[in-house]
Design goal:
The protein has 165 residues and is mainly α. It has one domain. The protein has helices at residues 4-37, 42-75, 82-114, 122-164. The longest helix is centred in the last third of the chain and has 43 residues, at 122-164.
């Protein structure tokens, strides 16, 4: 049992790192470059495929993070405290945002692109712009929530270490 908690936390942190790093790499680096250098509609086609593939990775990471939270709760040899509840709540909220994007936002963006929508042009372009803003807001929320989860994991490890000293 001595190694189980650190192993589980490591697994959660790796999943959070993959998820967060992927979001930053795609949203802040790849998408602006591709949309800035590759002509439409090829740029949209390419990034739609990339984001849909990333959605699968994000959901897999979400499953790992939530499974770790459940395992940590089940292995707990003490009462679950507020920090544990907060961490679980933040993880659940971040997971919900990622699943919402994967299940509803990304498919809608893909459908609009396939239908020829161009951001800002006509009603479909306005809808594309609006749904893209939802995706951006959700991504920022996921990042902030995931940072909170990481911070609370680190704080728990520090508290555990200090109790041992």
């Amino acid at each position: 049992m001595h190694i189980v908690r650190p192993a589980l936390v490591t697994l959660a942190l790796v999943a959070l790192g993959l998820w967060m790093g992927g979001m930053v790499a795609l949203g802040a680096i790849a998408a602006p470059v591709v949309f800035g250098m590759v002509p439409a509609p090829t740029s949209a086609d390419a990034m739609t495929v990339v984001f849909r593939r990333f959605d699968k990775l994000a959901v897999a990471c979400v499953i790992v993070v939530l499974a770790v939270e459940a395992a940590l709760a089940a292995l707990r040899d003490r009462k679950i405290d507020r920090a544990d509840l907060l961490r679980g709540g933040l993880a659940t909220a971040a997971a919900a945002a990622a699943v919402y994007v994967a299940a509803f936002v990304s498919p809608r963006i893909e459908a609009l692109h396939r239908g020829g929508a161009i951001r800002g042009l006509g009603s479909s372009g306005a809808e594309l712009n609006a749904i893209h803003q939802v995706a951006e807001r959700a991504g920022k929320a996921e990042l902030l929530l995931a940072i909170g989860v990481i911070a609370l994991h680190v704080a728990a490890l520090v508290r555990h270490h200090q109790k041992r000293d």
